[in-house]
Structures are given as structure tokens and as C-alpha cells.
Amino acid sequence: MSDFCPCGTGRPYADCCEPFITGKRLPLTAEELMRSRYSAYTRVETGYILQTTHPDHRGDFDEKGTREWAESSQWEGLEIVNTTAGGPDDAEGKVEFIARYRDRDVRRTHHELADFRKLDGVWYFTDGVGVKPAPATSV
Q1: Which has the closest alpha carbon to 17: 53, 47, 42?
Q2: Distance between CA atoms of residues 2 and 94, nearest Å
Q3: In degrees, to the nearest 5, what angle opens at C-alpha 100 toward C-alphas 137 and 139?
Q4: pLDDT averaged over consecutive 10-residue blocks of the chain (139 residues)?
């Protein structure tokens, strides 16, 4: 694997998302949590995905299905489209992102608006909704 972090910051993995995934540091922002969750998918760290899901939303988490999807996908990149709130002093935030990957040699995108919330000072993913592309318009 490359020494660069899969989340797309251009920083070394050891200085970017790895400390979050290994539990050495906590993400300070919703975007840091989003990036580290993407990196966890690329490295099939499903325990981190579960751990960073808000406790009120863990009942819906399918660890086996998540692991199978993460293992079968070839992760190609993450684009952060927009971030609303989610800073160190915020209690909630939203991150719109596009994750690019290949599944059985078919190129796919996962475009989502993800919600994050702090609980006892720690950021968690709560929910996300798919973002549909805008309809084409004629000029």
C-alpha cells in the first residue's frame, strides 16, 4: 500500500488517519472523522466503522456485509464536496462526499450527505442520505 493516506489529504497515512483508526487520537472535526472512516473502509477496519457510528445508530450496522463490501471493493479516492459546521467547537456537522471505487471491475461512486454529532466531546457518524445527481437541463 502507498505511504500516502487513502483519504486524499496528500499526507502520510501514519500522520493522517492511522492515529484515529488505531485509537491514538480522536478526530477533532466531522471532516476528520469522515476521512478516517473512508480510510478504514479501504483498509477493511470495520471495527473502527462500528466504533465511530453513534451508539443510537449501531443497531442497524451490518459488520459482515460492511466487511464483504470493503474487501471486494477497490477504493480509488475520496472527494469532500462540502462541509457544514462540524468544527472543533460544534456539536453537529454535515459532510457531503463522493467515494470512488470499483466493484467487480465496474467503476462506481457513492455520493452521500453524512450527518455527524458529538457525544461527550467525541464525534460520531449518525446517518447519511444518498445525493442524486442534478437532472440535465437544456441550454
Answers
A1: 42
A2: 29
A3: 10
A4: 87 98 98 99 98 95 95 97 98 98 94 98 95 65
Euclidean distance between the first and the last CA atom of the chain, given in angstroms as a whole number: 45
Question: For residue 27, what is its C-alpha cell?
Answer: 478526530
Going along the chain from its start, the domains and CATH numbers come out as 13-130 (3.10.450.50)
Comparing CA positions, the residue from 79, 76, 87, 81 lying closest to residue 32 is: 87
Which pLDDT score, from 0 to 100, does residue 131 have?
A: 84
| Phi–psi pair at 117, nearest 5 degrees | -145, 145
At residue 98, the 3 state secondary structure works out as strand
